[in-house]
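We were asked to recover a plausible sequence for a given structure. The inputs and outputs are reproduced exactly as logged, with field labels preserved.

PROBLEM: sequence recovery
POSITIONS: 170
GIVEN STRUCTURE:
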């Protein structure tokens, strides 16, 4: 494996504007609901006959359907689009964070003669033990890190391709 073959996506936590998206989704959904209930109430009370003056006294089903679609369908469609866009963006940010952590682990291992432990990762990257263990396991599965045991029985992780002194591979 080449030393610089692993390039992460840049992690930008400030780019996550989910509060703004959720606010827009809620506002559009509320507008759609208000318009839907208004039109349905007008239909039930007999006040809404549709937009065509040729049908005076008759209910214009086409006008009602167009009114429902335009007044409530469009805000619902926009809010659904925003919701799914937010979910996609959230996954992208989570993936970028994982890639950033992997990149930092690899850089720390290079600075530490190719060896590191879960505690080293937690302290230096300021992440939880679960995140550190999960990231190390992913890097072991990818073949970037390997599990090593020191003569004293301590489990450490070594960067593949580095000369590991006084440790046996598992």
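RECOVERED SEQUENCE:
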């Amino acid at each position: 494996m080449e030393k610089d073959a692993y390039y992460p996506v840049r992690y930008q936590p400030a780019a996550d504007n989910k509060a703004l998206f959720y606010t827009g989704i809620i506002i559009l959904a509320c507008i759609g609901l208000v318009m839907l209930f208004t039109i349905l109430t007008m239909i039930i009370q007999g006040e809404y006959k549709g937009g065509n003056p040729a049908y005076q006294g008759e209910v214009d089903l086409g006008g009602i359907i167009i009114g429902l679609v335009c007044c409530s369908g469009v805000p619902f469609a926009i809010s659904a689009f925003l919701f799914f866009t937010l979910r996609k963006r959230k996954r992208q940010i989570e993936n970028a964070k994982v890639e950033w952590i992997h990149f930092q682990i690899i850089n720390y291992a290079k600075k530490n003669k190719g060896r590191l432990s879960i505690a080293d990762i937690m302290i230096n990257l300021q992440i939880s033990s679960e995140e550190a263990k999960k990231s190390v396991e992913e890097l072991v599965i990818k073949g970037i890190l390997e599990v090593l045991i020191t003569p004293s029985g301590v489990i450490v992780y070594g960067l593949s391709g580095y000369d590991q002194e006084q440790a046996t591979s598992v």
